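Thread: Newbie trying to understand structure tokens

Hi all, I'm a second-year student working on a class project, and my supervisor (Dr. K.) asked me to get a predicted structure for one chain before our next meeting. I've only ever worked with sequences, so writing a 3D structure as a token string is new to me. If someone could post the tokens and maybe explain what I'm looking at, I'd be very grateful. Here's the chain:
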Amino acid sequence: MPQQSFQEFGALRRFARRGESDERCELCGSAVAAEHEHLVEPGKRRLICSCQACAILFSGQVGQRYRRVPTRVRSLPGFRLTDAQWDSLLVPINMAFFFANSATGRITAVYPSPAGATESLLTLENWEQIALPNAEVRSMQPDVEALLVNRLGAARGFPANRYFLVPIDQCFKLVGLVRMHWRGLSGGEELWREVADYFAALAARAVLAGEQHYA
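---
Reply by user tm_fold:
Sure, no problem. This is what the structure looks like when written as tokens:
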């Protein structure tokens, strides 16, 4: 059954704002810039604002309470997903992200909505249909990286389907944008401008999957 994904936390709203720098590290209390590091606490399904020093403590650690969210964004221009495969996922909008949830041992599908992030667990068969022809998604780090799918199409100003491997905080930034800016039944022009700007910025910082990147 669909449910809210992660704890409903103020970060959703903060991610959707621009230019604010009055936040603090939730571990040590030091001030952080508007663009700062994040940690995931998988056991509580929580995303935490972090300074760089605290984030470094959890880099590459397995079995720790927190996991550092990476910064790399990878574009997947050769990603293969048929319309029939997408339809089989029963996602009600043409935009969603997928991540490996270490707490459940399953792949979780999440889509943004006016109410926030809504999730459902994929069947193993559905995920294998996506993963088998797309080796890149099998390299996702559990809890902290996700496959982000944009199949909004020309009606929303996107002439081609776009696929990315992204940090999980970027996914919840998108969730925050949708929640904050949705108006009426279809979202409204302001929302879709925000979404277009979001994907343009994501594409600008993305490297092609397979390229070396150390962030």
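A couple of things are worth pointing out once you decode it. The first strand starts at residue 3 and ends at 4. The chain has a mean pLDDT of 85. Feel free to ask follow-ups in this thread.
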